[in-house]
Design brief:
This protein is an alpha/beta fold. The chain is built from 15 helices and 24 strands.
């Protein structure tokens, strides 16, 4: 059994849970400790005790720690990517790419530890100077989802430590292996005991112990909208900072003048790769009537060519859904869409085994046509390889439909018109806009986040991460 990491030591949990490979349910990866509320309080104790020393370290010390972690992630990309693909189900090339991104994130924030700057201004009063500086906010709790089990932890942990905070990290229960591997690297990085703590366990049990603890100054959460809203209420009640990245129902608009080969590529990559299990997935494909039929034909042809199978097998395009519960959720959305009159143009069938005979949670990618924006399939996040096409008259209707959603994370358009591309970038109600690119796929050195029900609080990644993980101090001096 692999334990939690608290106060610089590996400790057993109240119980242990098995970690099963969704590509082959006969494959048991390992057993991982599950913390309870008491152990969560112990982790906060350790982080609070480590805070004075870690927050006082020099930028060079923090750079050295984060740069070492980033270097080891990059050096071990193949092995760590294999573990990630084995436990989460994304294909091996995608998994290796995710580990690379995690390494790059740590190295970027190693540099940010050195680049954190302030301002010195003249006061409006004679003889007074004003200094504006940033300081760590304190102990931070980081709660991450299962779909990016090493990249999302990296882009929360790295800035938290870079700016002098101490960390209690709770990963999703479905993907403890990647979290444990990252924690093991951090345990050898030169961090003082308690500066980083790994707390695996059920969110319902561990989460309240973290959120309600007055010593936790901030919470960064990525997950469902419902959970995020409840966490926001709990943090607001006691004045703690919070940063929430939640759901998405992202549109990809395809206009009459689009390059259809490129648009098909954007749709397949954005909607179906990573088995559609991305908050930035383009699950609504909004297509103008002049190219609708040709686009659907091309898309169905491309979907027919995709291989669904074991995430680590060569030639696999789409791995399994992460677990049985998610598979049941996806199938429920498919049945509901059909009941509401949507036409299943392709796929949507569960597969008990892949072509190699591996038992797993496999689902053919599903594409619906004859849908409108009032259907449940157009309103709610499925979080699986399921997309629907909405036919519209023209650009104006496409933009209106794209914005007609409670979410606002990512929004895309495929067009060769500079006029429409420029207008869409300005008027799409989303935190991120893609022109002739998939809605999923972002850089690590620029801000990530959305609007409306998709995000609350400061942006993640890039230099904007300092907005959440630091507090601004204004100091006046008379001399």
């Amino acid at each position: 059994m692999k334990g939690n990491f608290i106060g610089g030591a590996w400790v057993a949990g109240a119980r242990a849970l098995p970690n099963v490979n969704p590509s082959d349910t006969r494959d048991l990866i390992d057993h991982y400790a599950q913390a309870d509320a008491a152990q969560a309080r112990h982790a906060v104790d350790a982080a609070a005790q480590a805070l004075p020393a870690w927050s006082a370290t020099s930028p060079q010390q923090r750079f050295d720690v984060l740069d070492q972690v980033g270097g080891e992630l990059l050096a071990r990309r193949e092995a760590l990517g294999d573990l990630l693909a084995r436990e989460e189900g994304k294909t091996l090339p995608e998994a290796i790419g995710e580990v690379v991104r995690a390494g790059q994130v740590f190295k970027f924030f190693a540099g940010e530890a050195l680049r954190l700057s302030g301002e010195s201004l003249a006061s409006v009063r004679p003889g007074v100077t004003v200094d504006i500086t940033r300081e760590p906010i304190g102990v931070v709790a980081l709660i991450t989802p299962w779909n990016f089990p090493i990249a999302i932890p990296a882009w929360k942990i790295a800035p938290a430590l870079a700016f002098g905070n101490t960390v209690v990290f709770k990963p999703a229960e479905l993907v403890p292996g990647s979290a444990w591997a990252l924690a093991e690297i951090l345990s050898r990085s030169g961090l003082p005991a308690g500066a980083f703590n790994l707390l695996m366990g059920r969110g319902a049990e561990v989460g309240p112990a973290l959120v309600d603890d007055p010593r936790v100054a901030g919470l960064s959460f990525t997950g469902s909208t419902a959970t995020g809203r409840s966490l926001a209420q709990a943090c607001a009640a006691r004045g703690a900072k919070f940063q929430l990245e939640m759901g998405g129902k992202n549109p990809l608009v395809v206009l009459d003048d689009a390059d259809l080969e490129l648009a098909t590529h954007c749709a397949v990559q954005g909607a179906f790769f990573s088995t559609g299990q991305r908050c930035t997935a383009s699950s609504r494909l909004i297509v103008t009537q002049g190219v609708h039929d040709r686009f659907v034909d091309r898309l169905v042809t491309r979907l027919r060519s995709l291989t669904v199978g074991d995430a680590r097998s060569p030639g696999t395009d789409l791995g399994p859904v992460v677990d049985e519960r998610q598979l049941d959720t996806d199938l429920g959305h498919i049945r509901d869409a059909q009941a509401q009159g949507a036409r299943l143009a392709f796929g949507g069938q569960p597969m008990a085994r892949d072509a190699r005979g591996h038992p797993g949670f496999y689902l053919q990618p599903a594409l619906f046509t004859e849908t409108d924006n009032t259907m449940r399939i157009s309103r709610e996040e499925v979080f699986g390889p399921v997309a629907n096409v909405i036919r519209v008259r023209d650009y104006d209707e496409a933009l209106a439909v794209a914005n007609d959603t409670p979410f606002g994370l990512s929004s895309g358009v495929c067009t060769t018109s500079l006029k429409h591309a420029s207008h869409f970038k300005r008027h799409a109600q989303a935190g991120m806009v893609m022109v002739n690119l998939p809605t999923a796929g972002v850089d690590y050195h620029v801000p990530f986040g959305g609007r409306k029900a998709s995000s609350m609080g400061a942006r993640e990644q890039g230099r904007y991460a300092a907005e959440f993980f630091t507090a601004v101090k204004t100091s006046y001096t008379f001399a």
